[in-house]
Design a protein that fits this description.
This protein has 7 helices and 3 strands; from the N terminus they run ααβααββααα. The protein is mainly alpha-helical. It has one domain: Winged helix-like DNA-binding domain superfamily/Winged helix DNA-binding domain (Arc Repressor Mutant, subunit A, Orthogonal Bundle), CATH 1.10.10. InterPro entries: HTH_MarR-typ (IPR000835), MarR/SlyA-like (IPR039422), Transc_reg_Sar_Rot_HTH (IPR055166), WH-like_DNA-bd_sf (IPR036388), WH_DNA-bd_sf (IPR036390).
């Protein structure tokens, strides 16, 4: 529990701010960076970045996926997703094609080469889990809490006042 004595002095006429290491945003930022950095040496031999790995995981799960669904499931915007998909397609891991009924819709399909990459990536989740080292119940509770937090933030963005 943070008490007023623990807070930074308030600026003239302002409200005191909690210390950086007491802020939720910093805890999330630090955890996100730490976990993402864990993946780097595991993904490097596969020639994948973390966002590319997320795309490949979704394709390994589904076999094919509409670009708009990548965006919503992985929370990646088109500006990030399009060049990422182009690089994976250039490597022969996936192919993209337009829907003849709706030229705006693009379907992404896993190739055989992309499917073979899965075997090389299968140990990654377990390796990451060993380093995270949380009991299964705590791991699941944390994952669910983070999903709820993300949903709450996305739903509440429109309610933020301009300029903070």
């Amino acid at each position: 529990m943070v008490t007023m004595a623990d807070r930074s002095p308030a600026p003239a006429g302002g409200f005191p701010l909690p210390a950086v290491d007491e802020q939720m945003c910093f805890a999330l930022y630090a955890a996100s960076r730490a976990v993402t950095n864990l993946y780097r040496p595991l993904l490097e031999p596969l020639g994948l970045t973390y966002p590319q790995y997320l795309v490949m995981m979704l394709l390994w799960e589904r076999g094919e996926c509409w670009v708009k669904d990548f965006g919503s499931v992985l929370q990646l915007d088109y500006g990030t997703l399009t060049p990422l998909l182009k690089r994976l397609e250039a490597r022969g891991l996936l192919v993209r094609g337009r829907d003849p009924r709706d030229e705006r819709s693009v379907l992404v399909v896993l190739t055989e080469e992309g499917g073979r990459l899965r075997a090389r990536a299968e140990g990654i989740p377990e390796a990451i889990g060993r380093v995270i080292d949380l009991p299964e119940e705590e791991f699941e509770a944390t994952r669910l809490a983070l999903r709820r937090l993300t949903a709450n933030v996305l739903a509440g963005e429109a309610r933020l006042p301009e300029g903070g």
